[in-house]
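pasting for ref. prot 1 ->
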Amino acid sequence: MSRMRERGWVRSLTGIDGPGVRLVCFPHSGGSAIAFGEWAAAVPSGTALMAVQYPGRGDRFGEPPVDDVAAMADSAAAELLRLPPGDRVLFGHSLGALVAYETALLLRDAGEEPRALCVSAALPPGEMSERNVHLAPDDEFWATLHALGGIEPAVLENKELRELLLPMLRSDLRAHATYRPSPGAGPLSCPVRGYHGEGDPLVAEARLAGWARVTSGEYSGTVRPGGHFHVEHDVPGLVADVLSHGRA
Protein backbone atom coordinates (compact mmCIF):
# COMPACT_ATOMS: atom_id res chain seq x y z
CA MET A 1 0.00 0.00 0.00
CA SER A 2 1.24 3.52 -0.73
CA ARG A 3 2.58 5.20 2.38
CA MET A 4 0.52 8.14 3.58
CA ARG A 5 2.56 11.29 4.20
CA GLU A 6 3.29 11.84 7.86
CA ARG A 7 0.52 13.69 9.65
CA GLY A 8 -1.76 13.49 6.66
CA TRP A 9 -5.50 13.08 6.78
CA VAL A 10 -5.85 9.32 6.20
CA ARG A 11 -4.12 6.72 8.38
CA SER A 12 -3.68 3.00 7.92
CA LEU A 13 -4.57 1.03 11.06
CA THR A 14 -3.73 -2.42 9.70
CA GLY A 15 -0.76 -2.04 7.32
CA ILE A 16 -2.13 -4.46 4.73
CA ASP A 17 -0.67 -4.19 1.22
CA GLY A 18 -2.93 -4.42 -1.81
CA PRO A 19 -6.18 -4.86 0.10
CA GLY A 20 -9.25 -6.24 -1.56
CA VAL A 21 -11.35 -3.70 0.36
CA ARG A 22 -10.44 -0.53 2.22
CA LEU A 23 -12.72 0.33 5.13
CA VAL A 24 -12.31 4.07 5.68
CA CYS A 25 -13.67 5.47 8.96
CA PHE A 26 -14.51 9.08 9.83
CA PRO A 27 -14.69 9.99 13.55
CA HIS A 28 -17.20 12.04 15.51
CA SER A 29 -16.76 15.57 16.84
CA GLY A 30 -13.74 15.54 19.12
CA GLY A 31 -12.76 12.09 17.89
CA SER A 32 -9.51 10.99 16.29
CA ALA A 33 -8.35 8.14 14.09
CA ILE A 34 -7.49 6.06 17.15
CA ALA A 35 -11.21 5.91 17.99
CA PHE A 36 -11.28 3.04 15.49
CA GLY A 37 -8.20 1.29 16.84
CA GLU A 38 -10.25 -1.62 18.24
CA TRP A 39 -11.68 -2.25 14.79
CA ALA A 40 -8.31 -3.57 13.55
CA ALA A 41 -8.82 -6.92 15.31
CA ALA A 42 -12.28 -7.27 13.79
CA VAL A 43 -11.55 -6.71 10.09
CA PRO A 44 -11.07 -9.91 8.10
CA SER A 45 -7.98 -10.89 6.16
CA GLY A 46 -7.63 -8.93 2.95
CA THR A 47 -9.39 -5.84 4.33
CA ALA A 48 -7.44 -2.68 5.15
CA LEU A 49 -8.72 -0.48 7.95
CA MET A 50 -8.10 3.23 7.50
CA ALA A 51 -9.23 6.20 9.56
CA VAL A 52 -9.30 9.94 9.01
CA GLN A 53 -7.33 12.17 11.37
CA TYR A 54 -8.78 15.68 11.52
CA PRO A 55 -6.39 18.52 12.47
CA GLY A 56 -6.27 19.63 16.09
CA ARG A 57 -6.01 16.22 17.77
CA GLY A 58 -3.62 13.33 18.23
CA ASP A 59 -0.37 13.85 16.34
CA ARG A 60 -2.01 16.84 14.59
CA PHE A 61 -2.79 18.59 17.86
CA GLY A 62 -0.63 21.59 17.00
CA GLU A 63 -2.51 22.27 13.77
CA PRO A 64 -5.52 24.60 13.72
CA PRO A 65 -8.82 22.68 13.53
CA VAL A 66 -10.95 22.89 10.40
CA ASP A 67 -14.56 23.94 10.95
CA ASP A 68 -15.91 23.14 7.49
CA VAL A 69 -17.27 19.73 6.47
CA ALA A 70 -16.64 20.29 2.76
CA ALA A 71 -13.02 21.27 3.41
CA MET A 72 -12.52 18.15 5.54
CA ALA A 73 -13.93 15.99 2.75
CA ASP A 74 -11.78 17.70 0.11
CA SER A 75 -8.60 16.82 2.02
CA ALA A 76 -9.65 13.25 2.83
CA ALA A 77 -10.78 12.52 -0.73
CA ALA A 78 -7.58 13.94 -2.21
CA GLU A 79 -5.47 11.54 -0.17
CA LEU A 80 -7.71 8.56 -0.90
CA LEU A 81 -7.50 9.29 -4.62
CA ARG A 82 -3.71 9.15 -4.45
CA LEU A 83 -3.94 5.48 -3.45
CA PRO A 84 -4.20 2.77 -6.11
CA PRO A 85 -7.83 2.34 -7.18
CA GLY A 86 -9.78 -0.26 -5.24
CA ASP A 87 -13.01 -1.01 -3.46
CA ARG A 88 -13.80 1.29 -0.57
CA VAL A 89 -16.45 1.23 2.14
CA LEU A 90 -16.89 4.52 4.00
CA PHE A 91 -18.14 4.61 7.60
CA GLY A 92 -18.82 7.88 9.41
CA HIS A 93 -20.05 8.44 12.95
CA SER A 94 -21.97 11.63 13.88
CA LEU A 95 -19.97 14.52 12.34
CA GLY A 96 -18.02 11.84 10.49
CA ALA A 97 -21.16 10.70 8.69
CA LEU A 98 -21.42 14.07 6.97
CA VAL A 99 -17.71 14.14 6.12
CA ALA A 100 -17.97 10.59 4.77
CA TYR A 101 -20.99 11.53 2.64
CA GLU A 102 -19.23 14.55 1.12
CA THR A 103 -16.13 12.39 0.55
CA ALA A 104 -18.27 9.78 -1.21
CA LEU A 105 -19.58 12.46 -3.58
CA LEU A 106 -16.04 13.58 -4.41
CA LEU A 107 -14.90 10.01 -5.01
CA ARG A 108 -17.96 9.46 -7.20
CA ASP A 109 -17.17 12.56 -9.24
CA ALA A 110 -13.62 11.25 -9.74
CA GLY A 111 -14.94 7.93 -11.04
CA GLU A 112 -14.22 5.98 -7.83
CA GLU A 113 -17.57 5.85 -6.01
CA PRO A 114 -17.31 3.75 -2.84
CA ARG A 115 -18.79 0.28 -2.67
CA ALA A 116 -21.02 1.46 0.21
CA LEU A 117 -21.59 4.44 2.49
CA CYS A 118 -22.39 3.68 6.14
CA VAL A 119 -23.65 6.52 8.33
CA SER A 120 -24.06 6.41 12.09
CA ALA A 121 -25.75 8.63 14.68
CA ALA A 122 -26.31 11.52 12.28
CA LEU A 123 -29.33 13.24 10.82
CA PRO A 124 -29.47 13.32 7.01
CA PRO A 125 -27.71 16.18 5.22
CA GLY A 126 -29.45 19.49 5.82
CA GLU A 127 -31.76 18.21 8.58
CA MET A 128 -29.85 19.21 11.72
CA SER A 129 -32.07 21.35 13.93
CA GLU A 130 -29.99 21.92 17.10
CA ARG A 131 -27.25 24.23 15.87
CA ASN A 132 -26.21 26.13 18.99
CA VAL A 133 -24.26 23.64 21.12
CA HIS A 134 -20.92 25.09 20.01
CA LEU A 135 -22.07 28.52 21.22
CA ALA A 136 -23.03 27.43 24.75
CA PRO A 137 -21.15 28.76 27.81
CA ASP A 138 -18.35 26.48 28.91
CA ASP A 139 -20.16 24.77 31.82
CA GLU A 140 -23.26 24.09 29.73
CA PHE A 141 -21.10 22.96 26.81
CA TRP A 142 -19.24 20.36 28.87
CA ALA A 143 -22.41 19.18 30.60
CA THR A 144 -24.05 18.57 27.22
CA LEU A 145 -21.13 16.54 25.92
CA HIS A 146 -20.91 14.55 29.16
CA ALA A 147 -24.62 13.69 28.95
CA LEU A 148 -24.03 12.13 25.53
CA GLY A 149 -21.41 9.80 26.99
CA GLY A 150 -18.51 11.00 24.86
CA ILE A 151 -16.44 12.71 27.54
CA GLU A 152 -14.46 10.80 30.13
CA PRO A 153 -14.89 11.96 33.77
CA ALA A 154 -11.13 12.49 33.96
CA VAL A 155 -11.42 15.16 31.26
CA LEU A 156 -14.23 16.95 33.08
CA GLU A 157 -12.17 17.01 36.27
CA ASN A 158 -9.04 18.43 34.60
CA LYS A 159 -9.40 22.15 33.95
CA GLU A 160 -6.14 22.42 31.97
CA LEU A 161 -7.11 19.53 29.70
CA ARG A 162 -10.58 20.99 29.14
CA GLU A 163 -9.03 24.29 28.08
CA LEU A 164 -6.73 22.49 25.63
CA LEU A 165 -9.57 20.51 24.06
CA LEU A 166 -12.19 23.25 24.00
CA PRO A 167 -11.16 25.01 20.75
CA MET A 168 -11.05 21.73 18.83
CA LEU A 169 -14.40 20.55 20.17
CA ARG A 170 -16.13 23.85 19.47
CA SER A 171 -14.66 23.84 15.95
CA ASP A 172 -15.96 20.33 15.22
CA LEU A 173 -19.41 21.15 16.54
CA ARG A 174 -19.42 24.39 14.55
CA ALA A 175 -18.58 22.40 11.41
CA HIS A 176 -21.52 20.10 12.14
CA ALA A 177 -23.88 22.98 12.92
CA THR A 178 -23.04 25.09 9.89
CA TYR A 179 -22.92 22.27 7.34
CA ARG A 180 -25.26 22.57 4.38
CA PRO A 181 -25.27 20.03 1.54
CA SER A 182 -24.23 21.32 -1.85
CA PRO A 183 -27.28 21.96 -4.07
CA GLY A 184 -27.42 19.88 -7.20
CA ALA A 185 -24.89 17.29 -6.03
CA GLY A 186 -26.98 14.42 -7.41
CA PRO A 187 -27.55 11.12 -5.62
CA LEU A 188 -24.97 8.43 -5.12
CA SER A 189 -25.70 5.03 -6.64
CA CYS A 190 -24.04 2.88 -3.96
CA PRO A 191 -26.02 1.34 -1.09
CA VAL A 192 -26.33 3.42 2.07
CA ARG A 193 -26.60 1.81 5.51
CA GLY A 194 -27.80 3.78 8.53
CA TYR A 195 -26.98 2.96 12.18
CA HIS A 196 -29.04 4.28 15.08
CA GLY A 197 -28.06 3.94 18.73
CA GLU A 198 -31.14 3.09 20.74
CA GLY A 199 -32.08 6.06 22.92
CA ASP A 200 -29.79 8.50 21.07
CA PRO A 201 -31.00 11.96 22.23
CA LEU A 202 -29.63 13.68 19.11
CA VAL A 203 -31.07 11.51 16.35
CA ALA A 204 -34.63 10.21 16.24
CA GLU A 205 -34.72 6.76 14.68
CA ALA A 206 -37.50 7.71 12.24
CA ARG A 207 -35.46 10.59 10.83
CA LEU A 208 -32.46 8.41 10.04
CA ALA A 209 -34.40 6.98 7.08
CA GLY A 210 -34.01 10.35 5.36
CA TRP A 211 -30.55 9.17 4.30
CA ALA A 212 -32.34 7.17 1.61
CA ARG A 213 -32.58 10.39 -0.38
CA VAL A 214 -28.81 10.60 -0.93
CA THR A 215 -28.70 7.51 -3.15
CA SER A 216 -30.52 5.94 -6.05
CA GLY A 217 -29.33 2.60 -4.67
CA GLU A 218 -30.61 0.64 -1.71
CA TYR A 219 -31.01 2.19 1.74
CA SER A 220 -31.26 0.09 4.89
CA GLY A 221 -31.12 0.92 8.57
CA THR A 222 -30.59 -0.87 11.85
CA VAL A 223 -30.83 -0.09 15.56
CA ARG A 224 -28.09 -0.99 18.03
CA PRO A 225 -27.86 -0.68 21.83
CA GLY A 226 -25.62 1.98 23.30
CA GLY A 227 -27.13 5.38 22.56
CA HIS A 228 -25.19 7.99 20.64
CA PHE A 229 -21.93 6.08 21.12
CA HIS A 230 -23.25 2.66 20.13
CA VAL A 231 -20.05 2.20 18.08
CA GLU A 232 -18.26 1.26 21.30
CA HIS A 233 -20.50 -1.80 21.75
CA ASP A 234 -20.01 -5.15 19.98
CA VAL A 235 -17.32 -3.85 17.62
CA PRO A 236 -16.93 -7.22 15.78
CA GLY A 237 -20.67 -7.32 15.06
CA LEU A 238 -20.68 -3.74 13.79
CA VAL A 239 -17.63 -4.25 11.56
CA ALA A 240 -19.13 -7.41 10.08
CA ASP A 241 -22.39 -5.60 9.34
CA VAL A 242 -20.60 -2.65 7.74
CA LEU A 243 -18.50 -4.85 5.49
CA SER A 244 -21.50 -7.00 4.51
CA HIS A 245 -22.95 -3.93 2.80
CA GLY A 246 -19.80 -3.40 0.80
CA ARG A 247 -19.87 -6.75 -0.97
CA ALA A 248 -20.30 -7.02 -4.71
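and prot 2 ->
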Amino acid sequence: MSFATVPDLILEPMVRSALLEDLGSYGDVTTRAVIPADVTYDAKLNARQDAIVSGMQVAALTFRLVDPSLEITLHIADGQTCKKGDVLMSIKGKAASILSGERVALNYAGRLTGIATKTAGFVAQAKGTKARVTCTRKTTPNMRLVEKLAVLHGGGHNHRYSLSDAIMIKDNHIAAAGGVRQVLEATKQHASHMMAVEIEVDRLDQLQEVLEVGGASVVLLDNMNNDDLRQAVKIVNGRMKTEASGNVKLDRIASIAATGVDYISSGALTHSAKTIDLGLDF
Protein backbone atom coordinates (compact mmCIF):
# COMPACT_ATOMS: atom_id res chain seq x y z
CA MET A 1 0.00 0.00 0.00
CA SER A 2 1.31 3.45 -0.89
CA PHE A 3 0.80 6.50 1.32
CA ALA A 4 0.51 10.15 0.41
CA THR A 5 3.14 12.34 2.04
CA VAL A 6 2.48 15.57 3.88
CA PRO A 7 4.23 18.62 2.39
CA ASP A 8 7.84 18.93 3.52
CA LEU A 9 7.02 22.54 4.36
CA ILE A 10 4.92 21.34 7.30
CA LEU A 11 7.60 18.98 8.59
CA GLU A 12 10.52 21.34 8.09
CA PRO A 13 10.22 23.39 11.34
CA MET A 14 10.29 20.20 13.44
CA VAL A 15 13.27 18.73 11.59
CA ARG A 16 15.14 22.03 11.50
CA SER A 17 14.71 22.37 15.27
CA ALA A 18 16.10 18.87 15.83
CA LEU A 19 19.11 19.61 13.62
CA LEU A 20 19.82 22.87 15.43
CA GLU A 21 19.68 21.02 18.74
CA ASP A 22 22.18 18.43 17.52
CA LEU A 23 24.54 20.75 15.67
CA GLY A 24 24.79 23.16 18.57
CA SER A 25 26.25 26.65 18.26
CA TYR A 26 29.26 25.71 16.13
CA GLY A 27 28.23 22.75 14.01
CA ASP A 28 29.81 19.30 13.75
CA VAL A 29 33.31 20.04 15.00
CA THR A 30 34.46 16.42 14.72
CA THR A 31 33.54 16.08 11.07
CA ARG A 32 34.92 19.51 10.27
CA ALA A 33 38.24 18.58 11.90
CA VAL A 34 38.80 15.17 10.28
CA ILE A 35 36.87 15.07 6.98
CA PRO A 36 38.12 17.19 4.05
CA ALA A 37 35.37 19.27 2.52
CA ASP A 38 35.75 17.68 -0.92
CA VAL A 39 35.40 14.04 0.21
CA THR A 40 32.27 12.38 -1.16
CA TYR A 41 30.65 9.10 -0.23
CA ASP A 42 27.71 6.82 -0.94
CA ALA A 43 26.07 5.91 2.37
CA LYS A 44 23.36 3.32 2.98
CA LEU A 45 20.59 3.52 5.57
CA ASN A 46 20.14 -0.14 6.52
CA ALA A 47 17.61 -2.12 8.56
CA ARG A 48 19.17 -4.24 11.27
CA GLN A 49 15.93 -6.07 12.06
CA ASP A 50 12.62 -6.90 10.39
CA ALA A 51 10.10 -4.05 10.58
CA ILE A 52 7.38 -1.92 9.01
CA VAL A 53 9.11 1.17 7.66
CA SER A 54 8.25 4.72 8.62
CA GLY A 55 10.15 7.99 8.81
CA MET A 56 11.79 7.85 5.39
CA GLN A 57 10.27 11.15 4.32
CA VAL A 58 11.55 12.75 7.52
CA ALA A 59 15.02 11.21 7.17
CA ALA A 60 15.31 12.40 3.58
CA LEU A 61 14.22 15.90 4.58
CA THR A 62 16.85 15.89 7.34
CA PHE A 63 19.66 15.26 4.88
CA ARG A 64 18.31 17.80 2.39
CA LEU A 65 18.16 20.51 5.05
CA VAL A 66 21.81 19.86 5.91
CA ASP A 67 22.85 19.89 2.27
CA PRO A 68 20.40 20.28 -0.65
CA SER A 69 23.03 18.90 -3.04
CA LEU A 70 22.91 15.39 -1.51
CA GLU A 71 21.45 12.76 -3.83
CA ILE A 72 18.87 10.67 -1.98
CA THR A 73 17.41 7.45 -3.37
CA LEU A 74 14.56 5.73 -1.54
CA HIS A 75 14.53 1.93 -1.81
CA ILE A 76 11.80 0.99 0.68
CA ALA A 77 8.99 3.47 1.26
CA ASP A 78 7.02 4.33 4.38
CA GLY A 79 4.41 1.66 5.07
CA GLN A 80 6.36 -1.16 3.42
CA THR A 81 7.92 -4.18 5.07
CA CYS A 82 11.68 -4.50 5.40
CA LYS A 83 13.88 -7.42 6.39
CA LYS A 84 17.08 -7.37 8.39
CA GLY A 85 19.88 -6.24 6.05
CA ASP A 86 17.64 -4.38 3.60
CA VAL A 87 18.82 -1.01 2.31
CA LEU A 88 16.08 1.53 2.97
CA MET A 89 17.76 4.62 1.49
CA SER A 90 20.97 5.66 -0.26
CA ILE A 91 22.56 9.06 0.34
CA LYS A 92 25.31 10.23 -1.99
CA GLY A 93 27.38 13.38 -1.77
CA LYS A 94 29.64 15.22 0.62
CA ALA A 95 30.67 12.92 3.45
CA ALA A 96 30.68 15.79 5.93
CA SER A 97 27.06 16.62 5.15
CA ILE A 98 25.93 13.02 5.50
CA LEU A 99 27.69 12.66 8.85
CA SER A 100 26.21 15.90 10.16
CA GLY A 101 22.64 14.73 9.45
CA GLU A 102 23.12 11.08 10.38
CA ARG A 103 21.97 11.04 14.01
CA VAL A 104 18.85 13.14 13.58
CA ALA A 105 17.78 11.13 10.53
CA LEU A 106 18.31 7.82 12.35
CA ASN A 107 16.55 9.06 15.49
CA TYR A 108 13.43 9.90 13.50
CA ALA A 109 13.50 6.81 11.30
CA GLY A 110 14.14 4.36 14.13
CA ARG A 111 11.48 5.86 16.37
CA LEU A 112 8.81 6.06 13.67
CA THR A 113 9.57 2.61 12.28
CA GLY A 114 9.14 1.28 15.81
CA ILE A 115 5.69 2.84 16.05
CA ALA A 116 4.64 1.50 12.64
CA THR A 117 5.88 -1.97 13.56
CA LYS A 118 4.09 -2.01 16.91
CA THR A 119 0.90 -0.76 15.28
CA ALA A 120 1.03 -3.52 12.67
CA GLY A 121 1.17 -6.08 15.47
CA PHE A 122 -1.95 -4.64 17.10
CA VAL A 123 -3.81 -4.41 13.78
CA ALA A 124 -3.04 -8.05 12.98
CA GLN A 125 -4.80 -9.10 16.19
CA ALA A 126 -8.02 -7.36 15.09
CA LYS A 127 -8.04 -8.89 11.62
CA GLY A 128 -11.38 -10.36 10.61
CA THR A 129 -13.39 -7.95 12.78
CA LYS A 130 -14.76 -4.50 12.09
CA ALA A 131 -12.67 -2.93 14.84
CA ARG A 132 -10.19 -0.25 13.84
CA VAL A 133 -7.06 0.22 15.94
CA THR A 134 -6.36 3.89 16.64
CA CYS A 135 -3.71 5.95 18.41
CA THR A 136 -4.28 8.68 21.01
CA ARG A 137 -2.74 12.04 21.95
CA LYS A 138 -0.11 10.29 24.10
CA THR A 139 2.65 11.31 21.74
CA THR A 140 6.13 12.78 22.06
CA PRO A 141 5.90 16.60 22.33
CA ASN A 142 6.43 18.26 18.94
CA MET A 143 6.39 14.89 17.15
CA ARG A 144 2.65 14.17 17.10
CA LEU A 145 2.20 14.60 13.35
CA VAL A 146 4.95 12.18 12.35
CA GLU A 147 4.08 9.68 15.10
CA LYS A 148 0.47 9.62 13.92
CA LEU A 149 1.69 9.18 10.35
CA ALA A 150 3.71 6.19 11.57
CA VAL A 151 0.51 4.69 13.00
CA LEU A 152 -1.04 4.98 9.53
CA HIS A 153 2.05 3.34 8.00
CA GLY A 154 1.50 0.41 10.37
CA GLY A 155 -2.07 -0.06 9.20
CA GLY A 156 -3.73 1.71 12.12
CA HIS A 157 -5.98 4.75 12.19
CA ASN A 158 -5.75 8.16 13.82
CA HIS A 159 -7.79 9.61 16.66
CA ARG A 160 -7.98 13.41 16.91
CA TYR A 161 -4.75 15.32 16.31
CA SER A 162 -5.37 18.09 18.81
CA LEU A 163 -7.83 19.46 21.34
CA SER A 164 -9.42 21.56 18.59
CA ASP A 165 -10.30 18.68 16.25
CA ALA A 166 -13.36 17.37 18.06
CA ILE A 167 -15.31 17.65 21.30
CA MET A 168 -14.19 14.77 23.49
CA ILE A 169 -15.85 14.81 26.90
CA LYS A 170 -13.71 12.97 29.45
CA ASP A 171 -14.47 11.91 33.03
CA ASN A 172 -12.92 15.09 34.43
CA HIS A 173 -15.16 17.24 32.23
CA ILE A 174 -18.19 15.34 33.53
CA ALA A 175 -17.07 15.71 37.14
CA ALA A 176 -16.35 19.43 36.79
CA ALA A 177 -19.60 20.19 34.93
CA GLY A 178 -21.82 18.20 37.29
CA GLY A 179 -22.78 15.11 35.32
CA VAL A 180 -23.42 13.43 31.99
CA ARG A 181 -26.64 15.31 31.29
CA GLN A 182 -25.06 18.68 32.01
CA VAL A 183 -22.12 18.23 29.62
CA LEU A 184 -24.29 16.90 26.81
CA GLU A 185 -26.87 19.66 27.14
CA ALA A 186 -24.12 22.28 27.16
CA THR A 187 -22.57 20.70 24.07
CA LYS A 188 -25.90 20.88 22.22
CA GLN A 189 -26.06 24.61 22.91
CA HIS A 190 -22.49 25.58 22.07
CA ALA A 191 -21.00 23.08 19.61
CA SER A 192 -20.77 23.75 15.90
CA HIS A 193 -22.85 21.43 13.76
CA MET A 194 -19.58 20.52 12.02
CA MET A 195 -17.91 19.31 15.22
CA ALA A 196 -18.00 15.63 16.16
CA VAL A 197 -18.81 14.81 19.79
CA GLU A 198 -17.45 11.87 21.80
CA ILE A 199 -18.14 11.16 25.46
CA GLU A 200 -16.34 8.84 27.87
CA VAL A 201 -18.17 6.51 30.23
CA ASP A 202 -16.87 3.84 32.57
CA ARG A 203 -20.21 2.38 33.71
CA LEU A 204 -23.19 0.98 31.83
CA ASP A 205 -25.64 3.23 33.70
CA GLN A 206 -23.72 6.24 32.36
CA LEU A 207 -24.06 4.81 28.88
CA GLN A 208 -27.82 4.55 29.32
CA GLU A 209 -27.92 8.22 30.34
CA VAL A 210 -25.84 9.23 27.31
CA LEU A 211 -28.34 7.53 25.02
CA GLU A 212 -31.30 9.13 26.80
CA VAL A 213 -29.89 12.66 26.58
CA GLY A 214 -28.35 12.36 23.11
CA GLY A 215 -25.94 14.77 21.49
CA ALA A 216 -22.92 12.50 21.04
CA SER A 217 -21.99 10.37 18.06
CA VAL A 218 -19.23 8.28 19.68
CA VAL A 219 -18.99 6.76 23.13
CA LEU A 220 -15.63 5.86 24.67
CA LEU A 221 -15.96 2.78 26.89
CA ASP A 222 -13.18 3.31 29.39
CA ASN A 223 -11.45 0.44 31.19
CA MET A 224 -14.37 -1.94 30.77
CA ASN A 225 -13.91 -5.69 30.84
CA ASN A 226 -14.94 -7.70 27.80
CA ASP A 227 -18.31 -8.71 29.23
CA ASP A 228 -19.22 -5.07 29.81
CA LEU A 229 -17.96 -4.14 26.34
CA ARG A 230 -20.23 -6.75 24.78
CA GLN A 231 -23.16 -5.49 26.83
CA ALA A 232 -22.39 -1.90 25.89
CA VAL A 233 -22.36 -2.76 22.18
CA LYS A 234 -25.72 -4.47 22.64
CA ILE A 235 -27.18 -1.48 24.48
CA VAL A 236 -25.97 1.00 21.86
CA ASN A 237 -27.38 -1.19 19.07
CA GLY A 238 -25.83 0.88 16.29
CA ARG A 239 -27.06 4.25 17.54
CA MET A 240 -23.50 5.47 18.18
CA LYS A 241 -19.98 4.41 17.35
CA THR A 242 -18.28 2.55 20.18
CA GLU A 243 -14.64 2.90 21.21
CA ALA A 244 -12.85 0.67 23.72
CA SER A 245 -9.98 2.31 25.57
CA GLY A 246 -7.91 1.80 28.69
CA ASN A 247 -5.72 -1.17 29.57
CA VAL A 248 -5.46 -2.04 25.87
CA LYS A 249 -2.50 -4.35 25.43
CA LEU A 250 -1.48 -6.59 22.56
CA ASP A 251 -2.74 -9.77 24.22
CA ARG A 252 -6.22 -8.22 24.67
CA ILE A 253 -6.77 -6.82 21.18
CA ALA A 254 -8.34 -9.95 19.67
CA SER A 255 -10.78 -10.43 22.54
CA ILE A 256 -11.73 -6.74 22.61
CA ALA A 257 -12.29 -6.71 18.85
CA ALA A 258 -14.54 -9.76 19.20
CA THR A 259 -16.94 -7.79 21.43
CA GLY A 260 -18.12 -5.83 18.38
CA VAL A 261 -16.73 -2.38 19.19
CA ASP A 262 -16.01 -0.07 16.28
CA TYR A 263 -12.68 1.30 17.53
CA ILE A 264 -9.91 0.25 19.89
CA SER A 265 -7.65 3.12 20.99
CA SER A 266 -4.29 2.59 22.62
CA GLY A 267 -1.70 5.09 23.78
CA ALA A 268 0.85 2.26 23.78
CA LEU A 269 1.18 2.53 20.00
CA THR A 270 3.13 5.75 20.44
CA HIS A 271 4.24 5.99 24.06
CA SER A 272 5.56 2.41 24.40
CA ALA A 273 6.91 1.57 20.95
CA LYS A 274 10.47 0.26 20.89
CA THR A 275 12.86 2.04 18.54
CA ILE A 276 13.88 -0.15 15.62
CA ASP A 277 17.61 -0.60 15.05
CA LEU A 278 18.62 1.15 11.86
CA GLY A 279 22.15 2.07 10.82
CA LEU A 280 23.89 4.39 8.40
CA ASP A 281 26.84 2.59 6.89
CA PHE A 282 29.64 4.03 4.75
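The longest strand covers residues 40-47.
The chain has a mean pLDDT of 97.
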